[in-house]
Specification:
- This protein is mainly α.
- The chain is 65% helix and 10% strand.
- The chain has a two-stranded antiparallel ribbon.
């Protein structure tokens, strides 16, 4: 059900993008909104297709570590509670070691949340910046023209730099 919904939204966005007239400039606002709704769609809108796997790689990796650290945190938290109640070692660790491990995995889980949100926000910023720079000229045509000029009251040299 969830995959069908995501596929439907991606299809609608891609059809709306492909049916638009070729514009002189891409809208940074549209690119940011597309990336906010579905990560990577802003990059598709600005035709930076190679960035989509990087974005999803960052999001999936962060989600994996959130899940893994959360599972470890729960395991060591419950073992610490049981060790505190019974006074016996659990999982081969003392109570103080279990508390240290619990805190370690809790901290790692929080860092993973921050990395997930960071990748998501960078995805939106990247799409907006790409839209701003969509027609930026990166050609090798750099030239400097020097011409003398003369008017009734002035004489001089004119410099023209094309980047």
């Amino acid at each position: 059900m969830k995959r069908t919904y995501i596929f439907f939204i991606c299809t609608l966005i891609s059809l709306s993008i492909s049916s638009q007239k070729i514009q002189k400039d891409k809208s940074p606002k549209k690119a940011a909104i597309y990336s906010a709704v579905i990560p990577g769609c802003g990059q598709i809108y600005t035709k930076k297709y190679w960035k989509v796997p990087i974005i999803y790689g960052g999001l999936v990796t962060s989600a994996y570590f959130i899940n893994d650290n959360n599972n470890q945190y729960k395991e060591y938290r419950e073992a610490a509670l049981l060790s505190y109640e019974t006074g016996e070692d659990q999982l081969g660790y003392t109570y103080s070691e279990l508390i240290t491990l619990k805190d370690h995995y809790k901290r790692n889980r929080e860092i993973s949340y921050f990395s997930f949100v960071g990748v998501y926000i960078l995805n939106i910023i990247d799409a907006s910046v790409n839209a701003h720079l969509f027609h930026f000229d990166v050609s090798d045509d750099i030239s400097l023209n020097i011409r003398p000029y003369s008017t009734f009251s002035n004489t001089g040299v004119s410099f023209s730099l094309n980047l």
